[in-house]
Write a structure and sequence with these properties.
single chain, mainly alpha, 2 domains, binds zinc ion
Amino acid sequence: MAQEADNLDRAADLTRALAEAQIAAVRRQVKPEQVQNPDGTWPIVACIECDADLGQRLALGKIRCVTCQDLRERGGVRQWPR
Ligand SMILES: [Zn+2]
Protein backbone atom coordinates (compact mmCIF):
# COMPACT_ATOMS: atom_id res chain seq x y z
CA MET A 1 0.00 0.00 0.00
CA ALA A 2 2.81 2.41 0.92
CA GLN A 3 4.62 1.33 -2.25
CA GLU A 4 1.57 2.22 -4.33
CA ALA A 5 1.35 5.66 -2.71
CA ASP A 6 5.05 6.22 -3.50
CA ASN A 7 4.46 5.33 -7.12
CA LEU A 8 1.49 7.69 -7.31
CA ASP A 9 3.61 10.45 -5.77
CA ARG A 10 6.35 9.80 -8.31
CA ALA A 11 3.85 9.85 -11.17
CA ALA A 12 2.39 13.13 -9.92
CA ASP A 13 5.89 14.64 -9.58
CA LEU A 14 6.75 13.52 -13.11
CA THR A 15 3.52 14.93 -14.52
CA ARG A 16 4.12 18.23 -12.75
CA ALA A 17 7.74 18.46 -13.97
CA LEU A 18 6.64 17.70 -17.54
CA ALA A 19 3.91 20.34 -17.43
CA GLU A 20 6.33 22.92 -16.01
CA ALA A 21 8.88 22.16 -18.74
CA GLN A 22 6.22 22.57 -21.42
CA ILE A 23 5.02 25.85 -19.91
CA ALA A 24 8.62 27.12 -19.81
CA ALA A 25 9.07 26.12 -23.47
CA VAL A 26 5.94 28.02 -24.50
CA ARG A 27 7.01 31.05 -22.45
CA ARG A 28 10.35 31.06 -24.29
CA GLN A 29 8.53 30.90 -27.62
CA VAL A 30 6.07 33.72 -26.95
CA LYS A 31 8.37 36.09 -25.09
CA PRO A 32 9.30 39.31 -26.94
CA GLU A 33 12.75 39.36 -28.53
CA GLN A 34 13.16 43.12 -28.59
CA VAL A 35 12.15 46.02 -26.36
CA GLN A 36 9.72 48.64 -27.64
CA ASN A 37 10.98 52.24 -27.72
CA PRO A 38 9.32 54.69 -25.32
CA ASP A 39 7.68 56.41 -28.33
CA GLY A 40 5.95 53.16 -29.32
CA THR A 41 8.19 52.32 -32.26
CA TRP A 42 10.40 49.22 -32.47
CA PRO A 43 14.19 49.17 -32.94
CA ILE A 44 13.89 46.26 -35.40
CA VAL A 45 11.02 46.47 -37.90
CA ALA A 46 12.18 43.94 -40.51
CA CYS A 47 13.12 40.26 -40.18
CA ILE A 48 16.78 40.01 -39.12
CA GLU A 49 17.22 36.98 -41.41
CA CYS A 50 15.52 37.96 -44.68
CA ASP A 51 14.58 41.64 -44.20
CA ALA A 52 10.85 40.94 -44.75
CA ASP A 53 8.30 43.24 -43.09
CA LEU A 54 7.47 41.83 -39.65
CA GLY A 55 3.82 42.95 -39.87
CA GLN A 56 1.73 41.72 -36.94
CA ARG A 57 4.71 39.92 -35.40
CA LEU A 58 6.10 43.32 -34.51
CA ALA A 59 3.32 43.80 -31.96
CA LEU A 60 4.66 40.66 -30.23
CA GLY A 61 8.19 42.05 -30.15
CA LYS A 62 9.46 39.42 -32.58
CA ILE A 63 12.53 39.91 -34.77
CA ARG A 64 11.99 37.18 -37.39
CA CYS A 65 9.21 36.67 -39.94
CA VAL A 66 7.02 33.56 -39.65
CA THR A 67 9.00 31.72 -42.34
CA CYS A 68 12.41 32.34 -40.76
CA GLN A 69 11.12 31.60 -37.25
CA ASP A 70 9.57 28.37 -38.48
CA LEU A 71 12.81 27.30 -40.17
CA ARG A 72 14.74 28.15 -37.04
CA GLU A 73 12.41 26.14 -34.82
CA ARG A 74 12.52 23.13 -37.15
CA GLY A 75 16.31 23.26 -37.15
CA GLY A 76 16.50 23.28 -33.38
CA VAL A 77 15.31 20.94 -30.69
CA ARG A 78 11.60 20.28 -30.80
CA GLN A 79 10.23 21.87 -27.65
CA TRP A 80 6.51 21.27 -27.91
CA PRO A 81 4.56 18.45 -29.47
CA ARG A 82 2.41 19.60 -32.41
ZN1 LIG B 1 12.49 36.25 -42.49
